[in-house]
Amino acid sequence: MKKYLKDLLIMYLLLFFCSCQAEVKRPDVQIIPQPASMTNMEGTFSISSQTKILINSENPEMHKVTSYLCNRLENFYQIKSKVTFSGAAEKKSIFIKLNTGLAIPKEAYNLSVTPKGIILQASSASGLFYGIQSLLQLMPPIQQKLSEVVVPSVEIMDAPRFAWRGLHLDVGRHFMPKEFILKYLDYMAIHKFNTFHWHLTEDQGWRIEIKKYPKLTEVGSVRKETLVGHYGSKIYDGVQVGGFYTQEEVKEVVAYAADRFITVVPEIEMPGHSLGALAAYPELGCTGGPYDVATTWGVFDDVYCAGKEETYAFLQDVLAEVIPLFPGEYFHIGGDECPKTRWQKCPLCKQKMKDEGLKSEHELQSYFVQRMEKFLNENGKKLIGWDEILEGGLAPNAAVMSWRGEKGGIAAAKEHHFVVMTPGDFCYLDHYQADPKNEPLAIGGFLPLKKVYGYEPVPAELTEAESKYVLGAQGNVWTEYMKSPEQVEYMVYPRAAALAEVVWSPKSSRDFDNFKSRLGRLTKLYDILGITYCKTELK
Ligand code: ACM
Ligand code: ZN
After folding, report:
1. 183 lies in the same domain as 106
2. Same domain (yes/no): 90, 188
3. Is residue 403 in contact with ligand 1, taking CB distance under 6 Å?
4. Are residues 208 and 267 in the same domain?
5. Which residues constitute the domain of residue 104?
6. Residue 535 domain-assigned?
7. Most CB contacts within 10 A, which of 229, 379, 388, 409?
8. Number of domains the chain contains
9. Closest Cα to residue 277, out of 237, 244, 307, 248?
């Protein structure tokens, strides 16, 4: 009897000990952007080098998805994985299933993590890629050799709210090296952004090689010095700077973006913000120059002459070289901040207005944009431009990027034109994000994290049918006061995380305090990746 009791006690202790061993702490789930639907469940799944990664499709896009997962497992945890083809899930595997018959939107995915394994399904490779991004956010935010990576059990059914989830970067005011552009894309992918708006030409520098017009980069990409301090300081640094991307580099960037399911939208500015080009080819301006690449910021009176046929021929040649480099559907032609001062005096501009029956310089700008639209449409692209392209009449198929508030976007949507919302008060990431007294010099404004998070891209003025024309929203990053990649990152993060949630997550799930409680995990990832970010609002 005594022996029986002793055995029972030993057995009980053993059982207790084993259950303690088996119980792995279930990590918290903190995904940004917040998935559309998520159920946390009991238990965990552990990924080790023994865990098979199975795919059901030989589609070449699958490689982008699996290599992203395998690289992260190896780089963060030193877990080497093998990908094999399989028609079905196996026990304790990660099954990545491209299911083109699945009735969910293109970028949507379903992710199931249970103690038995992981199943990720989507109707497209981009959906699978976003599922991988969420899965990676379930893993510990550490970079350390692990024998097992513990993932909490969860069921996620997720889909983005908007099709255009954009970040922009101005490389005209300050050129940013190609290596940084690749990093910028990497960081975008983590946040499920899918559109990179690359602002490639400016008064302060032309940044893309055009083979037919070599002076655009020989002359137009170099400025002799740069304003120091705030606009109007009249102090210059005396340091010549330049920089541009060769077409081969552009192809590399576009391919790198495509591997992360990001479309690159190029912007070639016209008819304003064109001093870089005019310095190289002064015959394209109304006065004939000479012009200098700008050394200060702002808006300049010298713009392309809209009266000369040579201007249209030049720009079409430029577009003809740029179009094939960018496979996306949209092409941005700028269109903002074009003073009409020179056009009002220019005999050729006045003659053009007379010949074409145009009643104002705004109509001349509209004529200019419509010619460009025709060329773009004939070459398989849709035109998008800043909201000034509404003035004088919108080109027939043009999409509008609304930056001077939402008025332009609302007007365009009411005319059944597609719209991307980037109003300055909510989406300009060059504005101060905290008390300017303690911040590096910025252009001005005040856009704290909470205000970005609170942005609603669909204005109440639009009917449900009109709101379908709002493609999404975008953060704009103008670099007058961002001289280095680190400064760009500092201005972009963590505000881009807030914007990512605005454009991805359901409106009903928006909750700033909850978002902030999830940011801690994401900023640990920023630390590992070496992303510079503003910590003021995280305290
Ligand atoms: C702009 O900020 N000028 C579009
Ligand atoms: Zn002119």
Report:
1. no
2. no
3. yes
4. yes
5. 24-158
6. no
7. 409
8. 2
9. 244
39 and 131 housed in the same domain: yes
Ligand 1 touching residue 336 (CB < 6 A) = yes
Closest CA to 524 of 497, 488, 485: 497
Q: The domain spanning residue 296 has which CATH number?
A: 3.20.20.80
Q: Which of 503, 496, 515 is nearest to 187 (CA)?
A: 496
From 141, 158, 175, the end of a domain falls on 158
Find out whether the beta carbon of 337 lies less than 6 Å from any atom of ligand 1: yes
Q: Is 386 close to ligand 1, i.e. is its CB under 6 Å away?
A: yes
Q: Nearest ligand to the C-alpha of residue 368?
A: 2
Whether pTM exceeds 0.90: yes
Closest ligand 1 atom number to CA of residue 428:
2
Residues in the 5 Å CB sphere of ion ligand 2: 286, 305, 307, 346, 348-349
> Which of 270, 336, 402 for a ligand 1 pocket mutation test, highest count of atoms within 8 Å of Cβ?
336
Question: Nearest C-alpha to atom 2 of ligand 1 is from which residue?
Answer: 403
Q: What is the pLDDT of residues 130-166, one digit of tens each?
A: 999 999 999 999 999 999 999 999 999 999 999 999 9
**Alpha helix (H) ranges present in 357-394?**
361-378
Q: Which of 208, 133, 129, 198 is nearest to 170 (CA)?
A: 198
Closest-approaching ligand to the CA atom of 344: 2
> Who's near 47: CB < 8 A, 6+ residues apart?
73, 79, 94, 118, 139, 148, 149, 151
- Residue 537: which pLDDT band, with cuts at 50, 70 and 90? confident
Q: Which ligand is nearest to the CA of 202?
A: 1
**With 70 as the cut, is the pLDDT of residue 13 above it?**
no
Residue 349 has pLDDT above 70, yes or no: yes
User: What's the token pair of residue 466?
Assistant: 């009109």
Residues 383 and 417 in one domain: yes
* Ligand 1 contacts CB of residue 391 (under 6 A): no
Q: How far apart are CA 91 and CA 462, in angstroms?
A: 50
Which residues, listed in sequence order, are joined to residue 122 by a DSSP beta bridge? 98
Could you tell me if 171 and 57 lie in one domain?
no
